[in-house]
Amino acid sequence: MIETAFASSIGRIRKSNQDFVRVFKNKSGMTLAIVCDGMGGHQGGDVASTMAVNHLGHNYLMTDFDALEPAHKWLELQLKAENDDILKAADRFPDLNGMGTTIVLVFAMAMAALVVHLGDSRAYRYAAGKFTQVTQDHSLVNELVKMGQITQEQAKHHPQKNIITQALGVSSTIDPEYNELPFAAGDMLLLCTDGLTNSLTDPQIQQILATKELTLKERCHKLVNEANRLGGGDNITVCLVFMKEEEQGDR
Q1: What are the DSSP calls for 75-141, one per residue?
Q2: Distances (CA, A) of 170 to 138, 166, 202, 244
Q3: What is the average pLDDT value for the chain, to the nearest integer?
Q4: What pTM did the predictor assign?
Q5: Are 53 and 33 in contact (CB under 8 A)?
Q6: How confident is the model at residue 144 (pLDDT cuts 50, 70, 90)?
Q7: What fold, for 2-133+168-246?
Q8: How far is CA 111 from the centre of its chain?
């Protein structure tokens, strides 16, 4: 059985929360969790992130597939359509001009999951005591890191850190990244915006996820609270997707 929980905070600096997160189940009971981090314009960011999550979620509720291959094909069409919708809305309304949103999502089912993303909102996997980053940021600094021009440490404080190379609503073409991975009993997936990863290190995040005394919801709130305690320089959003170990009861 799949258990989910999420939490979001405006942080301590921003005047609005442009992140948006929701979890949906389709007619076959397959879980879809989505996290978006909006950007651009006075209200544009929260409009773009809300549009993306709600449109995808609404359309997903009407599907009945129960495998990752049809989910992949369905999502390819949905993301292209949503990208077009955001671009059209930005053209139609001047105050939304330039809006866009990152997106990271996961289709989760017994034994397997499909993680998809555009931008620098991330997915991590915590399984068998190991914490690994599933996604690679679609960002200028990550491209510089991959080319060997800067180090990972330099990337954390680079002046162009916020330049995203892939997102919904920024270009007429998108190139989402798809990652299929095992999802067995006891495994946990974390979806998050950069408000979390800019504040907490991987070991700090892992320590919270590993705290079995906390419920899934409590772990979400602890991640958000710690990010706020350490600065809260951006909106912070987290979503946990956990494959419960039935014989051990609730975690």
Answers
A1: HHHHHHHHHHHHHHHHHH-GGGTT-EEEEEEEEEETEEEEEEEESS-EEEEEETTEEEE-----BHH
A2: 13, 8, 29, 38
A3: 93
A4: 0.94
A5: no
A6: confident
A7: Phosphatase 2c; domain 1 (3.60.40)
A8: 21
